[in-house]
Amino acid sequence: MSEKKPIAHLTQGAPMGVVPPDGENEPGIDTRRRYLASDAFGVLCFLAMTTCLLALVGLLAMVIINGLPWVSWKLLSSFPSRTPENAGILSALVGSVWLISLTVLISVPIGIGSALYLEEYSKPSRWRRLVQLNIANLAGVPSIVYGILGLGLFVRAMSLQRSVLAGALTLTLVVLPIVILSAQEALRAVPKSIRLGSYALGATRWQTTWHQVLPAALPGMMTGVILAMARALGEAAPLLAVGAVAYIAYVPRTLSDEFTALPLQIYNWASRPQAEFHGLASAAIIVLLAVLILLNAGAVFVRSRYGKRVKW
Amino acid sequence: MTNSSLPNADTAALADDDWLTSASNRHGYERAIHAFLLACAAVSVFTTIGIVVVLLAESLQFFREVSIFEFMFGTRWTPLFSEKHFGILPLLCGSFLVTAGAILIAGPIGLGTAIYLSEYANPVVRETVKPILEVLAGIPSVVYGVMAVTTVSPVIRWLFQSDSIFNALSASVVVGFMVLPMIVSLSEDVLRAVPRDLRLAAYALGATKLQVTLGVVTPAALSGIMASFLLAISRAVGETMAVTLAAGATAQLTLNPLESVQTMTAYIVQVSAGDTPAGSLEYRTIFAVGLTLFVSTMLLNILAQWILDRMREEYE
């Protein structure tokens, strides 16, 4: 909008060398129409944006309104049940905590290790480009495909059955590209002079990486890890493919126990016809979103707190 | 001889690396760490190999019993009924219907939003709306599924006076809104990457904002916009939870968005959530369908990536 004024000023009256169409003798009219069209288009695009925001926020608000009456201590502290009044998400909540902790434990070392290899150790080569391209492609693979891989590889071939471990390994594969790509970005943000300074003092490559590069890149890596946790928390499709079922009336105690997770419980309740279960599903969504918001707040906190500590 | 054939930058990097490697080899564990990191990086390569091997191995066994022609061109998909037919067209049709609907909704709204944010909005609006959209992009897809079931589907049934609870349209609507943030964010990036000189040159010729946007900026960013659409399509094809909840489980060849359809992803969920014994023909169908899904989304992603890479070079 700010650029409009000087241009409008320039084109006021008859534009130089422009013949008004069809003998139209008032040069102002065509110009005015053109600006009217331009502004109308701006309004149209603004409407697109408001539609987009209102629809998303509105849909979310509907879910929250549906679910609020069902949010209670009982919801958090009881197991799923046939009767909506007694049903709760305890096993799902604990299952999700199990899954996420395991997924983070497995995916973070592998993910950061891969990023370190690609950014700090490997030379520019065809092999590195291939690995990089492969990771970018893996990030776009639908999560249900990872579920099929988990079913074929972990559940059947390694005969882990429908265990927490099989679920966590499958989720690890889903979030690994996210961890690697964000860790690489964090490593790229560390200035080359830090590394060269360390090498100049006679440090080896690993000493440089461990004592200089990693601490500097850690806040950026943490945000990536939290993003990955959020993704793992919300994924349902790969777990369904691995064969996790929603009706589990106990809390998993070992790695080989069967499990359920929050998104699975939500899916299970939403796929039933009764309206009460839809209310429960919405209530479980409120819990899920609350945990997601906490995770995101954690990411912001980590970035602002530890991002400042390292300065060059 | 060999050195002179390399570009200068590469020669420098190599020399640099040789010196460092010889220094680090003084310690044995340096080499061990190198090997460990290499193994980490290899995990992602093995993941891809794993996907391909698992999908191909089971699919090949499937195609030993079912002819590939029936699979590709058969018009009935009833592997779970007593009379079995294995034509994937109804599933493809379901996926296509939901995806097409989603893009018809997300395309215009997303592009309009991106144009508004990049060309019309003041920085304050832009800096508030973009993070909001990013947050919305992080909402799990099962949440969108619940939205479809509890809110969108009743509205559609009331609007069109139809009685099917499950319909392709409500799936399209929520998947459309789900991929919207992606289209907005990517398109806005490429629109903003169009050099300012081009806009100023057009303004200098007396063009209005509309003419500059539609005549100069959008065509210049067109390939990037195409890429964002392709990525959104790939995402919509692979989307699982929302379509499983909203579109139902009736595999049929129809283009009527008010009817219940089954997508490839929804079929995979239906079978794997049930109790099909490993090694049976029904069990193998999900690998054949998964292979089809994997190949189609992979092609879309590679195409989009290729377009984006080519564009990046053009502007540098």
UniProtKB/TrEMBL annotation, chain A:
<feature type="transmembrane region" description="Helical">
    <location>
        <begin position="88"/>
        <end position="118"/>
    </location>
</feature>
<feature type="transmembrane region" description="Helical">
    <location>
        <begin position="41"/>
        <end position="68"/>
    </location>
</feature>
<dbReference type="InterPro" id="IPR000515">
    <property type="entry name" value="MetI-like"/>
</dbReference>
<feature type="transmembrane region" description="Helical">
    <location>
        <begin position="277"/>
        <end position="302"/>
    </location>
</feature>
<keyword id="KW-0813">Transport</keyword>
<dbReference type="GO" id="GO:0035435">
    <property type="term" value="P:phosphate ion transmembrane transport"/>
</dbReference>
<feature type="transmembrane region" description="Helical">
    <location>
        <begin position="164"/>
        <end position="183"/>
    </location>
</feature>
<feature type="transmembrane region" description="Helical">
    <location>
        <begin position="232"/>
        <end position="250"/>
    </location>
</feature>
<keyword id="KW-1003">Cell membrane</keyword>
<keyword id="KW-1133">Transmembrane helix</keyword>
<feature type="domain" description="ABC transmembrane type-1">
    <location>
        <begin position="93"/>
        <end position="298"/>
    </location>
</feature>
<protein>
    <recommendedName>
        <fullName>Phosphate transport system permease protein PstA</fullName>
    </recommendedName>
</protein>
<keyword id="KW-0812">Transmembrane</keyword>
<dbReference type="GO" id="GO:0005315">
    <property type="term" value="F:phosphate transmembrane transporter activity"/>
</dbReference>
<dbReference type="InterPro" id="IPR005672">
    <property type="entry name" value="Phosphate_PstA"/>
</dbReference>
<dbReference type="InterPro" id="IPR035906">
    <property type="entry name" value="MetI-like_sf"/>
</dbReference>
<keyword id="KW-0472">Membrane</keyword>
<dbReference type="Pfam" id="PF00528">
    <property type="entry name" value="BPD_transp_1"/>
</dbReference>
<dbReference type="GO" id="GO:0005886">
    <property type="term" value="C:plasma membrane"/>
</dbReference>
<feature type="transmembrane region" description="Helical">
    <location>
        <begin position="138"/>
        <end position="158"/>
    </location>
</feature>
<comment type="similarity">
    <text>Belongs to the binding-protein-dependent transport system permease family. CysTW subfamily.</text>
</comment>
TrEMBL record, chain B:
<feature type="transmembrane region" description="Helical">
    <location>
        <begin position="88"/>
        <end position="111"/>
    </location>
</feature>
<dbReference type="InterPro" id="IPR000515">
    <property type="entry name" value="MetI-like"/>
</dbReference>
<dbReference type="Pfam" id="PF00528">
    <property type="entry name" value="BPD_transp_1"/>
</dbReference>
<dbReference type="InterPro" id="IPR035906">
    <property type="entry name" value="MetI-like_sf"/>
</dbReference>
<feature type="transmembrane region" description="Helical">
    <location>
        <begin position="168"/>
        <end position="191"/>
    </location>
</feature>
<keyword id="KW-0472">Membrane</keyword>
<keyword id="KW-0812">Transmembrane</keyword>
<feature type="transmembrane region" description="Helical">
    <location>
        <begin position="35"/>
        <end position="57"/>
    </location>
</feature>
<feature type="transmembrane region" description="Helical">
    <location>
        <begin position="286"/>
        <end position="308"/>
    </location>
</feature>
<keyword id="KW-1133">Transmembrane helix</keyword>
<feature type="transmembrane region" description="Helical">
    <location>
        <begin position="212"/>
        <end position="233"/>
    </location>
</feature>
<keyword id="KW-1003">Cell membrane</keyword>
<comment type="function">
    <text>Part of the binding-protein-dependent transport system for phosphate; probably responsible for the translocation of the substrate across the membrane.</text>
</comment>
<feature type="transmembrane region" description="Helical">
    <location>
        <begin position="132"/>
        <end position="156"/>
    </location>
</feature>
<dbReference type="InterPro" id="IPR011864">
    <property type="entry name" value="Phosphate_PstC"/>
</dbReference>
<dbReference type="GO" id="GO:0005315">
    <property type="term" value="F:phosphate transmembrane transporter activity"/>
</dbReference>
<comment type="similarity">
    <text>Belongs to the binding-protein-dependent transport system permease family. CysTW subfamily.</text>
</comment>
<feature type="domain" description="ABC transmembrane type-1">
    <location>
        <begin position="92"/>
        <end position="304"/>
    </location>
</feature>
<protein>
    <recommendedName>
        <fullName>Phosphate transport system permease protein</fullName>
    </recommendedName>
</protein>
<dbReference type="GO" id="GO:0006817">
    <property type="term" value="P:phosphate ion transport"/>
</dbReference>
<dbReference type="GO" id="GO:0005886">
    <property type="term" value="C:plasma membrane"/>
</dbReference>
<keyword id="KW-0592">Phosphate transport</keyword>
